[in-house]
Specification:
Blueprint: H1 5-27, H2 33-61, H3 66-91, H4 98-112, E1 121-123, E2 129-131, H5 137-157, H6 166-185, H7 194-234, H8 237-253, H9 255-274, E3 281-283, H10 284-302, E4 306-312, E5 318-320, H11 324-334, E6 343-351, E7 355-362, H12 382-395, E8 398-404, E9 408-416, H13 417-422
Parallel strand pairs: 4-6
Antiparallel strand pairs: 1-2, 3-5, 6-7, 7-9, 8-9
Helix pairs in contact: 1-2, 1-7, 2-3, 2-7, 3-4, 3-5, 4-5, 5-6, 6-7, 8-9, 9-10, 10-11
Length: 423
């Protein structure tokens, strides 16, 4: 086999691509075992197809070897539809695709007739390819599989992000385009077909696609864990036990108040559970109502030691779920409860030209923001850290804490209006 510079310039990058992708697939811990097997088979058949292309080109331009050239051609026509089925297994690895395999088998059987019949094609004594009455069978079956492949991609991912469909769609478009280019190439000296290039590139695209899906699924898992963490961070054991103890006491002292407190506590827990389903923003009034329930329960426990004031000037905006309540909880736990005589927690909202502002103020002992703080002093409660992160990620907002020893603490939330209008 003699290769010219054109052949080498095409073959070298293609081989490096296949070798590199094969090594990557073998050592990649982030794709499933089934996907690894499918990718491995695709890469092996890609290498076979490249060799088939080179051998076919060499036989076409050399001395006539009718039987060998027929066998090489049958191999190429047989395995091409198989790639489409294997790509289906990347999209949905748990299905059987028996109908598709039946079509691929029919295609292979039809081309095997070339050894004894010109029904599909034959190689004449002059080493020329001659198409038969059913020479288009490969394109017909390939088109059916391509349409089904497109249908399967849309059906399986119609409810997911539209971006997930971009790579399967690009591959679906690339395959028929490569077939068209091969037809247009005609008699040009092209040892490796456009279709072979398209298949190898599709392998790379689908490998990237698998990782994008992994990242997306991993991101969804992280969000789910974060929502559970948020919920659990708000149902602190001491608050849970103290509230139940207060309800137990009220059952004897004031049954009516006990019933009202139980109803409020139930609504509080329901609000925390709802946070598991709310990934984005919620209306401020919904968040305020949940916070009021929490503060009402705390007032039952601390009676006159806790005063709550509201200065709500605007409500027509949205913010991440469970944003206000953990800040109010910190104001009660580390502000009011830190003073023997108790104190006041004030919730206020203001509207400005470019943003909305929510403040939670307590007249507790305060602290020095510049002083080193112990890890267990409570000020770095996980709820506050979550609030700050979600404000930045979901709303593009910010949270800042201002405090001075002996003068209390002010926590300010800013929600940009441009983010609110975009939701």
């Amino acid at each position: 086999m003699t290769w010219n510079l054109n052949t080498v310039s095409l073959l070298v990058p293609l081989c490096f691509m296949l070798i590199g992708l094969t090594i990557t697939v073998l050592i990649d811990p982030y794709i499933s075992r089934k996907h690894r097997w499918v990718m491995g088979i695709i890469l092996f058949l890609s290498a076979v197809l490249i060799e088939q292309n080179l051998l076919s080109a060499d036989l076409e331009n050399g001395e006539p070897h009718v039987l060998l050239r027929t066998a090489v051609s049958v191999l190429g026509y047989t395995i091409r539809p198989v790639f489409l089925i294997l790509f289906l297994y990347i999209v949905q690895p748990n299905k059987k695709y028996l109908g598709c395999w039946a079509l691929a088998a029919l295609n292979g059987v039809m081309h095997l007739t070339a050894f004894f019949s010109p029904l599909v094609f034959h190689i004449d004594e002059y080493n020329h390819y001659q198409g038969g009455p059913l020479h288009s069978i490969n394109y017909i079956i390939g088109s059916i599989l391509l349409i089904y492949w497109l249908f399967q991609s849309f059906r399986d991912f119609r409810s997911s992000r539209k971006r997930d469909l971009l790579i399967p769609l690009l591959v679906v478009l690339m395959i028929p385009l490569s077939v068209y280019l091969d037809k247009q190439a005609g008699e040009l000296d092209q040892p490796i077909t456009f279709l072979t290039f398209a298949i190898v590139i599709s392998c790379v695209f689908y490998y990237i696609w698998l990782h994008l899906r992994f990242v997306r699924d991993h991101e969804d898992d992280l969000k789910a864990k974060q929502r559970i963490q948020i919920m659990l961070s708000q149902i602190q054991p001491h608050f849970l036990y103290n509230t139940l103890s207060a309800i137990q006491y009220l059952c004897e002292a004031d049954p009516k108040a006990a019933g009202e407190t139980t109803a409020k506590f139930s609504r509080y827990l329901q609000g925390n559970m709802s946070a598991l389903k709310d990934e984005g923003e919620v209306p401020f009034l919904q968040e305020l109502e949940h916070t009021k329930i929490y503060l009402d329960i705390e007032k039952i426990r601390y009676e006159d030691a806790l005063c709550v004031a509201y200065d709500i000037r605007c409500t027509d905006f949205r913010l991440p779920t469970l944003t206000l309540q953990p800040i109010a909880e910190n104001a009660v736990r580390h502000g009011v409860r830190a003073k023997k005589e108790g104190g006041t927690v004030t919730l206020a909202t203001r509207e400005y030209p470019d943003h909305y502002e929510v403040t939670v103020t307590d007249d507790g002992p305060g602290f020095d923001p510049n002083a080193p703080r112990l890890a267990d002093d409570g000020r770095e409660h996980i709820g506050i850290a979550n609030v700050k992160n979600r404000l930045e990620q979901v709303s593009g907002g910010s949270l800042r804490i201002q405090s001075e020893p002996g003068k209390g603490t002010v926590v300010t939330i800013e929600i940009p209006k441009k983010q609110v209008n975009a939701t």
